Amino acid sequence: MASNTYEREHLVVTAVGPDRVGLVEQISNFLLKEGCNIEDSKMAVFCGEFTIILLVTGKEDALGRVAASIPSLTAQTGLTFTCKHPAARASAESALPCRLVAMCMDHPGVVHQLSSALSRLGVNIESLETKTEEAAMSGTPIFRLEARLSVPSRVNLHNLRQELDGIGQRENIDIEFSLLQRA
To answer: Whole-angstrom Cα distance, residue 110 to residue 104?
Structure first.
């Protein structure tokens, strides 16, 4: 008996180019017409440049049509697209979901300091977002980082917190680290 269900395949699609109204509508309409779904996405505008990262799911032939139609989509939108089938994920060890928030007066090296410490301890950064805004009263640039981490169960959380606190003290960064509820 034939099944109506299918194994969903994945395609990672990225694009960058001049921002204008209607880009998200054009991209989402294109994917819908090909029978694909946007499962996950991140979009932002940086200095007038629109950027997007999409995790697209669908049947293998539909994703093939999407990949083959990238030049047409580039011509329609003015964005530069790339697409890639994600590599098979290795079985992950047991890990705790955590959140890291850091705030300070903006200065070079904040992301590097924090990511180096996390990397040394084997902590995976699953998502990271940074933003620099002017402080309300003084206009001083304030840097904010927020990350979702996957901390292997073998990592001592006390040692991780001490490492982060040490960076905070040396670099004058307010750091908050917390465990998240498992999904």
So the answer is: 9
